[in-house]
Amino acid sequence: MRNPARPTLLTAGIAATALLASSQALAYNEGDFITRVGVAHVDPKSDNGSLANGAIDVDVRSDTNLGFTLGYLFHDKLGVELLAALPFKHDIRLADGGLPTASTKHLPPTLTLQYYPLGGTGAQVQPYAGIGLNYTHFFDESSELGDLELDSSWGLAGQLGLDVRLDDNWGLNAAAWYIDIDTDVSLDGTDLGKVSIDPWVFMAGISYRF
Hints:
The chain is mainly beta. It has 1 helix and 15 strands. It has one helix at about 5-25; strands at about 35-45, 50, 55-60, 65-75, 80-85, 90-95, 100-105, 110-115, 125-145, 150, 155-165, 170-180, 180-185, 190-195, 200-210. The strands form 2 sheets. The chain has an 8-stranded antiparallel beta barrel with strand order 1-4-5-8-9-11-12-15. The longest helix has 22 residues, at about 5-25. The radius of gyration is 24 Å and the shape is elongated. The relative contact order is 0.20.
């Protein structure tokens, strides 16, 4: 006599296998490369310090440009990522409410060690956190007051991010970094002191795993 339950169990088993395979296809695993591209906004802290022994208050303004990262997972839950971007340009105001009297461009490559708490699982939402090192190179400085120079900066960086997987390869991404950026400032060869930029960097865009 034919057992009517057998096809039902077989169908359920096939469906469960397909669901598991689909779930694992979303998983972040050792050996994955992940690139993220989006709009990046650099927002310096509100109190950037003062120059010339406190005589000149400094206000560094924010800027937005294209940002991109490349990451590699050397473990299901651990990876490294390099943040890069097109150059950001910041207007610099001296004294309260003053018009821009200087500007600078910078590149902020940042290398972080990342932790993926749901790595290796089929979670569609993949959060991550990172800590690492930033190098900021300033260039194209200009000032109405004279020959302005900002020294390059090394500092620590912290990161939080989130990928929402759309399929095996594509996803949506949002991330934020807090970066320690301090630079020594000189004008016409005279040392004026240090400026603390210490920005939050926010980026939103897409991710691609390969």
